[in-house]
Specification:
Blueprint lengths: L15 E5 L6 E3 L5 E3 L3 H5 L1 H9 L4 E5 L16 H10 L5 E3 L6 H9 L4 E4 L14 H11 L3 E4 L10 H5 L6 E3 L1 H15 L5 E5 L4 H11 L5 E4 L1 H5 L9 E3 L3 E3 L5 E4 L1 H12 L3 E5 L12 H12 L4 E5 L1 H13 L7 E2 L3 H8 L5 H4 L5
Parallel strand pairs: 1-4, 1-7, 4-6, 5-6, 7-8, 9-10, 9-14, 10-11, 14-15, 15-16
Antiparallel strand pairs: 2-3, 12-13
Length: 362
């Protein structure tokens, strides 16, 4: 199910390991006017790989990620410094340092000053426009500045992009997958190839053009597909027997359909409760407004309160919504809250994953 080498397949002892993580986390502003991490979910999900590397003798860990869309320019509001502070709190036994560059002399000095078994987080990759260009020059600068001897790809969310940190760097070093990347790819592939049945796919969101390829992908394998969200409100139609489209909606004062209604929610709950595998992509209503988050909340709680089914949550908005509920109620459990929105959809749709394909095969 996973044909690439992982950190378990190589010797990590004594290596300076360059890890591509996914720390593209939501930020908030504190009462003091400072940026802070609003949800540390993605950071915690990547800890398994970092702990494995440290426990198995890696000399130093150099982490790189992007945050937001600074479009190749330095933007202090999108600095990864706050992420380093959060990571340090999650790994109290490790030295976690930060350097406000991605390559160059400051990075070299920061790596030299890093104690053995220490962690160094580089500044936002996308402060340099070359990150999106899959630049060999930029990749060489990063590798030479960090002195890395092994590359680990653990940022699943960016593996559908051919960027410097996903492809060019991987061509310069021995390159393997991290444990989070492996988990996401295996679970998503298994959900299509060998799911426990019944398999129910719940598809919401706003744009039919974005969702139709996913619906088409699920048609041959899903026992039931439930369509909600704005695509249902806008009149999505299907004559496939296994597709259920929401039939009623909650409206605002101007008549806009902003959530699926009680009849559709009840039917959806019944279908999901009888499933062994549920894959959910796309919110069922305008969930950022509590008045229209009812159906999405009900679905998230049904999935989170069951321990006898495989529950996979996909998509940035959907994952973020479920992360928020999980933060409020840690008793909720899910098989996978995917850290990769577009990457997960690309994988399920059978698209190219250059950041995975470039890794060493077993």
């Amino acid at each position: 199910m996973f044909e690439k080498k992982t950190v378990r397949d190589v010797e990590v002892k004594g290596q300076v390991v360059l890890v591509r993580t996914d720390y593209n986390v939501p930020l908030t502003v504190t009462d003091e006017g400072k940026s802070a991490v609003a949800s540390d979910f993605r950071i915690r999900e990547g800890l398994l790989t970092l702990k494995y590397l440290l426990e198995n003798g890696a000399k130093k860990l150099i982490l790189m990620s992007h945050l937001g869309r600074p479009e190749g320019k330095r933007d202090e509001k999108l600095s990864l410094r706050v992420v380093a502070e959060t990571l340090a709190g999650l790994l109290p036994g490790s030295a976690v340092n930060f350097v406000d560059e991605v390559s160059g002399s400051e990075v070299k000095v920061a790596v030299e000053d890093l104690p053995e078994r220490g962690i160094l987080l580089l500044e936002n990759l996308r402060f340099d426009a070359r990150e999106k260009e899959n630049s060999e020059e930029f990749a060489r600068e990063i590798v030479e500045s960090t002195g890395a001897t092994l590359f680990v790809q653990d940022g699943f969310a960016v593996t559908h992009r051919a960027h410097t940190s996903t492809v060019a760097v991987a061509r310069l070093l021995p390159a393997v997958a991290g444990l989070l990347l492996e988990k996401e790819v295996v679970m998503l592939r298994q959900a299509l190839a060998e799911p426990e049945r019944p398999l129910v796919a719940v598809i919401g969101g706003a744009k039919v053009a974005d969702k139709q390829p996913l619906i088409d992908r699920f048609l041959p394998v899903a026992d039931r597909i439930i369509i909600g969200g704005k695509i249902a409100a806008d009149g999505y139609e299907s004559d496939h027997a296994q597709i259920y489209v929401a039939e009623d909606f909650d409206e605002d004062g101007e008549g806009a359909k902003l959530d699926i209604g009680p009849i559709a929610t009840a039917k959806m709950a019944g279908m999901v409760s009888g499933a062994k595998t549920v894959i959910w992509n796309g919110l069922l209503g305008k969930a950022e407004d509590p008045a229209f988050s009812t159906s999405s909340t009900i679905l998230a709680k049904i999935l989170g309160e069951r321990d006898d089914e495989t529950s996979i949550i996909l998509g940035g908005d959907t994952s973020g919504f479920v992360e928020g509920l999980y933060t409020e109620d840690p008793s909720l459990t899910y098989s996978l809250i995917s850290t990769g929105g577009g990457a997960a959809l690309e994988l399920l749709a059978g698209g190219e994953m250059p950041g995975v394909e470039v890794l060493e095969g077993k």
